[in-house]
Design a protein that fits this description.
Distance between the termini: 12 Å
Radius of gyration: 17 Å
Number of strands: 10
Bound molecules: 2-amino-2-deoxy-6-O-phosphono-alpha-D-glucopyranose
Shape: globular
CATH class: Alpha Beta
CATH topology: Rossmann fold
Structural class: alpha/beta
CATH architecture: 3-Layer(aba) Sandwich
Number of helices: 7
Largest sheet: 7 strands, parallel
Strand order of the largest sheet: 1-10-9-6-2-3-5
Order of helices and strands: EHEHEEHEHEEHEHEHE
Length: 251
């Protein structure tokens, strides 16, 4: 159902079709605005998108170099080169292979000594860049967006969060227990996300069915942070086709 009249849901087969449609969306923005300001997600879901963007950039079919990039979240206490850090992930998987210059990149510093100051500086950097044109989001199994967990304050900007048991357990499984998953994260807030002029939400995997059902139910509910997006005027949900038959949560 999804109430906001300007929101769109696109169903795609996971894999190359999904990556292509997501990359086309980003390419459309870059065609209109080469210097766009974009917030990037981490996780398994956007890997195909990043590979596709890198491939198009390498083939000179797309220029991603004039845009400016921020990230959505990171673990607290990890340096930018820690193998688990989201900063490292984004540099390795997208920013460096796509040829984005360091001066176009501002990522959260999870190991900042003055973490409150870092949160404020980060928001100031986004504002100085002209605000986010596009926030690309993944979705947590519990409905989190970035690291805004269930029950988060929807008026919050960048802040430190305690990660939920569910989120930490998912990440332990994803890293095959090789790392101790930090208890805290640093994340842009929901207010930061919904201030983006455009949002692209990527949803892949059966584990996301309940969170997607909550969004499709169309009722804002703080237990499902993703439903904060329902009020946004330019939301595109790109979801894998297998999830189309999943139930829509009502009430
Ligand atoms: C993590 C990140 C989110 C990400 C989500 C989904 O918790 N903090 O930013 O969107 O997981 O990840 P995945 O795409 O691997 O399912």
């Amino acid at each position: 159902m999804m109430s906001a009249s300007t929101s769109t849901i696109l169903w795609c087969r996971s894999g190359s079709e999904f990556s292509r449609v997501a990359a086309d969306h980003v390419a459309g923005l870059l065609a209109r605005k080469p210097g766009a300001v974009i917030a990037l997600p981490t996780g398994q879901t956007p890997l195909g998108l990043y590979a596709e963007l890198v491939e198009r950039a390498a083939a000179k079919r797309l220029s991603v170099a004039s845009a400016r990039y921020f990230n959505l979240d990171d673990y607290l206490g990890l340096s930018a080169d820690h193998p688990l850090s989201y900063a490292r992930f984004l540099r390795d998987r997208f920013l460096i292979p796509a040829g984005v210059a360091e001066e176009h990149i501002r990522l959260l510093q999870g190991d900042a000594v003055e973490i409150e100051a870092e949160c404020g500086d980060y928001e100031a950097a986004i504002a100085a860049a002209g605000g986010l044109d596009l926030a690309i989001l993944g979705l947590g199994t519990n409905g989190h967006i970035a690291f805004n967990e269930p029950g988060s304050d929807w008026s919050a900007h960048t802040h430190v969060v305690a990660l939920s048991q569910e989120t930490r357990a998912t990440h332990v499984a994803q890293t095959q227990g090789k790392f101790v998953i930090p208890e805290y994260g640093i994340t842009v807030g929901i207010a930061t996300i919904v201030a983006a002029r455009e949002i692209l939400l990527l949803v892949v995997g059966g584990a996301k069915a309940r969170a997607l059902a909550a969004l499709r139910g169309g009722i804002p509910d703080s237990k499902w942070p993703v439903t904060a997006l329902l009020t946004h005027r330019n939301l595109t949900v790109l979801a894998e086709a297998e999830l189309q038959s999943c139930s829509v949560m009502r009430g």
